[in-house]
Protein 1
Amino acid sequence: MKIHKNCLATLFCAIAALAVSAEDVNRYGTDLSSDMALIYAGGDQRPEWTVEEITPYVIHTYADGTRDWFFDAFLFLEFSSGSTGVAFDNGGHGRKAVKADYEWLLDRTFAPGCKLAALDSVIEAGKAELGAPRLRHKVVLGIPAPIKVVRDWGELNGHHLDFANDADRIEATKWYIDQVAKRFDAAGYKNIDLMGIYWLEEALFTNGGIMPAVNDYIYRKGLRSYWIPYYKDNAQFRFNWKKYGFDMAYQQPNYFFEREIPMSQLEAACDESKQCGMGLEMEFESQGKSRVQHDDPDSYYDRLIDYLDVFEKKGVFDEASVAWYSGTKGFLDLARSKDAKNHELADRMARIVAKRQAAKAASLKYPEFEIRDLALIYQGDKRRPEWTVEDFMPYVSHQFADGHRDWTFDGFLFLETDIDGKVRFFPWAGDEGATQKDWQWYIDKVYQKDRGLAALDKCISKLKKEIGDPGFKHKIVLTMPVPVKGNKHWGRLNGRDLDFDRTEDQVAASEWYINQMVDRFKKAKYKNLELTGIYWLDEDMCHTDGFPKHIAPFIHSKGLKFVWIPYFKGRGYEKWRELGFDIAYQQPNYIFHTPRLEKRLDEACDVSLHNGMAMEFECDGMTPFHAKDSNYDGVMKYIDAFEVNNVWQTCPVAYYTGTKGLLELKNNPCPENQALTDRLFNKIVERRAKLKK
């Protein structure tokens, strides 16, 4: 990173500031990645980052000739255009960047054949040589910092932006984030996932006021926000990084660059980072006056050794995520060096990274849940099936091509989103939300005679006579409507009108509803069904202010589990435990995404694995082989991806089948549809057999 001189006085002031800093977490910061390499890319003073140039960062060649994966994450960033003298942050010299410069940087970042494209290619080749990497590779992209002195940045939506105004700087930054996400998706990279956005400024003296809004927008895009503050005169910002909305911050010790800086600063940076929940930056470079190469006359080789030794002593390598700053091309220069000591040092770093990644990979696992295979049943609105005994047959059991029949799903989630598309049970723009009368309508639909739950219970009893006892009770999850904030006309409870702008009224209505559901389930005395959980209908946390955590204790007091299925990276997905849920399933949304992202299924599995989430399998009425615009091939890819990513082996799965997806497959018999359902339900039967063992 940038070089900042320091002194002992600054060090002691920083330690004093830490004592009055924000939350004392007393643990190092950890991220989805283990080790992230900083790649300076864009300006003409940088390498082009071709396949040859990026390879030493992706695959390390040891002194004995053996090769292994190296970094699992990459931060692409740029401060300056180089010879044209355009600055992308407040600390840069020269002309300050305007919209045309932002577009130039985007074009450079996503240029074909180099940078991101080269990284993707190297990983693809590495898979053929080395096999699957320990961790899926991730990318963080830096964004320019809007500079206040820019009075005419350019036009957006018919408005010329003036960066003296906070709102205009936020608008330009959001535009750039949108462009990054759009271009990344359009590029179709197979082996790298966009993990987050990096804020380029290493202190927040000029843009601190806009950071909460910017980071909130990044979060709403399903991305993480990153920051790497420098050490000097920055305590009020770096120790309070969470208040600005960052998801991850790494501290720069800034020990490497000046010989007069004592090792105590490096050690203090480790201690402070642990106290504030930050990761650490490893620092060296091969340019400038502080060059690391052992064979250089003024080598700073020994100071990099100090980093490695101190990080080992302080437990950084055992606990923290690490960002690796190596100047413009540090690891490339080490790889090309003829000096044995340089190779020895690079080998040491590569072994450290490999060990850390192996430990992180081993720690990742999908969650456990008492329901192994949960089928989603949309019931209530007139566009849904009647859900008679016959309708349930293809959901409760499957007849294979050889004629034998077996049990399938062990759990069923009953849910409904709306009534005739007019009354909705979750937040919707311009809609106040469903009333108590609407909630009661849905309760009555769930417990309708000879339909829904009653029909499912009878279907299971009928099949027991045909194929024997399944050896388990089928588990049921029931949906609760969302008490929509702003609804002042929901209805009366305990003699007063409820106002959903009051959290206590939202809780009261929710408890009334859950009591109704639980009591009627008990009274029904189903022979084959067991009420297991309550499902939260809204698929993100954009409009509910984290309300689930207020009702979770009541659900748990009923002996039930709280279940959630957010859409792919839906807001709040990574905080599902904090919200009070007992399990959350990730929707890949692969078959619904246009254009389809070929890597989406692998990425969704990786997101779930890193966040301890389960997975959703998705198909719908367009799945049959002969359907117009059939999703058949896409659905087969779910089965393939779940095999490759060990979902079938270890992970609970929820099955979205649209309104009546399995009924459509049953009603359209052909060898292809039989092959798909046989393959899917073979997985379910195998999972059940494994569980019994």
Protein 2
Amino acid sequence: MHVGEKKSILFRWEAVLAAFLLILSMAVTLLPNLNVLAADASTSGISVEFEPKVISEGSKFSLYIKFPHYLAESGRNIEVNGVNGFSGSSTGKAEALNGYEDSYSYYYIPAGSITFDGKNQPTLEIKIENDSNVYRYTVPWQNISFTPPESSSEPSSEPSAPELIGNQITVSKNAFMPEIKAGESKDIMIPLNATSVVGSAQVTLTMPEGLYLESAAATQTVNFKKGSASISCRVTAKQDVTDSVAAIGIDSVYSYDNKQTTEKTTFSVRLRASDDIKSNGKLVITGYQLGSSTLSYNGDTSLTITVQNTGSATMKDITMTLDGMATGSVTLKSGMDVQTLVELGPGQQSTFTYQLHGDKALPSGTAILTATAACGEEKSVAKVFVPCVGKPETSGGEGESGPGSSKPQVIIESYTYGEEGTSVTGGSTFTLGMTLKNTSSSSAIENIKMVVSSAADETTGGVFTPASSSNSFFIAKVGAGESFTESIDLVVKADAAPKSYGIDVQIAYEAVVDGKRESLTATERITIPVSQPDRFEVEDAQISSTVYAGESASCSVSYVNKGKSAIYNLSIAVEGTGFTTADANTYVGNVEAGNGDYFETTLNVTEPGTIDGKFIITYEDSAGTQTTLERPFTATVMEMDWGEPDPMEPTEPVDANPGLPLWGKILIIVGCVVVAGGIVVVVLRIRRKKRKAVPVFDDEDDDDYGDDDFDE
């Protein structure tokens, strides 16, 4: 290439570079005038907290804005402007606050900096230093109190819409219940149904303990088409969750009859614990039993509470305290509310019995008592649910001058569960059947909504969950004195401790009382005992097929507890014929869930023949039921064969290594030494002759001779 051509190409590249720099300078000049990108604050990880939580026109409120560190670390400049229903602005720096998460920084806006007009849904525009985005945060409906429209002096020509009864937005009855393992993230979908009064709504998800949102905003706008819609989000289970069913709260806000309407419901998610999470205890209340299914007013029943020592040492001076009794409700017929047990051995169970009395003013419903077992620092607390039947109402409401119509009451007449009706098994699905009755003899009830939910206690948030994620029923009308029946399939928590758990039945209904339509509610609680399946397995006995008389034989049996709860008071006995043993009766103790071991004994056999024996294994399950298993063993005992001596063999001892006499061996050794010495002398002489035959050279002459000069 010629020099002229090179200069021409260089000139062309310089022209292109100059044009690029000109365009870049123009873009930089125009950049401040371009619109910045907009982003949803909620999906970007930004959250806002108001104080107070609900704001209204003219109210003074402050707010915290929380930023993840990847957006705004402490010290970054923040600018916040109110738009739509908000006015005002605030600027400052993000900072870290003591007591808050280290991975977040916060920006505080004092009360009065931003105001609300009370008419429009307000929005915050948030700008962060060195970030080209404007993050918009729209305040959820549940945090806003609107100013009601001014009423006209003239009566409205349009009648007011009827009052809503029950939830208009519910979870689909056949919704699939997702399962999330500890530490796992999963996308879930919540299907919703709505009546015709709902067009669109703002739905806010509230995560229960153990779950948190990984993506998507907690509040979403849902448009219902043909009465159905769904919410999708990604949630993560914490590493320390246990096997349980968690309820995600669903708060819905929509407009009806020019008013803001709020509803609440839940969606169930099954949580699975990590495999290495275990629990143990020493003094445990394992269950309780009522003498009758209900306690009636002015009636009596017994309450028996069972405790167990699951430790390895004897416990002494155990106290049981029963709290929650009160005049006008449940009291003690006799005895004290505190009872004492002298001692309880390892693995043993014992009971405390109380005589309960229903006061004349006992209301219908469920009385909740608290049982506390204590021994030193060990303590176990359990709730006791007592179904109560009070005296029926016979007179009208308070403050009336004459007799009036009584308010109709709804009670649970009876309920069934499982096939035997004694208990349900952890991890199983059972059908709960309920028969409810309108106790009024004159008033019908209408628009009945019934919600079934698992009652929380001291140790768990509930162990029952709907098999289809829906737990509500609607009944149009029940006449005076009539009954109705509903059923629901429930799943029992797989690792639920064996005891009785409560189920709450909440009933909302309408009735006409003294010519006026009233909205009424009632809550009933029933109790269902839960047990764990017995999966204690014992292998066949192991022993040698042949045993010799006069020797000892080893015999063993292996066992493992594959169940979800411990087995107690394991003992192993050995009995049979043709042998003796020192381990005729052995107490092993408790075997925790997932653990196993083996038992080995030594059989002493003295006579030939056959030995027949068996291991007798006895234990108790979590309900105190005793089980006995037998594992037989047998072996043939042979007489020891010592053999007869050979009469032809010499009786004198014979030298095992015959050969040369001692003097011969010495001569051979001396001869070997002489021959070896002669060989050494000859070798030394040959070497001496070779050294004399080699000529001596000076160092200067070394290079004049090659290696070949010495080969001859």
